[in-house]
C-alpha cells in the first residue's frame, strides 16, 4: 500500500512538472505595443515604435516631439557604442508627415516604417 502511494505521488508530481514545462514553453503574450508594431516596427531590426516618439501620449507626433525623440535615440545609440552612419539619410519630420498637417499619425508612421524595410 505504501508503495502504491509513492507511485501515485511520483505520478502526480510528474504531471505537475510536465504541466509547468508546457505552460512555460508557451510563447509569451505580446504587449499591446508589440501587437500593434510588429517585427521591424518597434520590435527588432532597430526600428523605433510610435510610442517612442509620441512623448505626450496624445496619439500624434508633433515636430518638437519628433526632434527630441530622434536626438535621444541617436544619443542612446551612440552611448551603446553603435556607429552612427548615414545620419544624413535619416528621415525628416516632413518625410513622415505625408498629409502636411504638422503632425504624424500612427498610420503615417506605420506607412513610413513599411517603406523603409
Automatic annotation (TrEMBL):
GO terms for molecular function: calcium ion binding. The keyword Signal applies. Residues 1-20 form the signal peptide. InterPro entries: EF-hand-dom_pair, EF_Hand_1_Ca_BS, EF_hand_dom. Residues 61-79 have a biased composition (Basic and acidic residues). Keywords: Signal. Residues 24-117 are annotated as: Disordered. It comes from the Bacteria. Residues 94-108 have a biased composition (Acidic residues). Residues 49-76, 93-117 form the EF-hand domain. The keyword Signal applies. This is EF hand domain-containing protein. It comes from Chromatocurvus halotolerans.
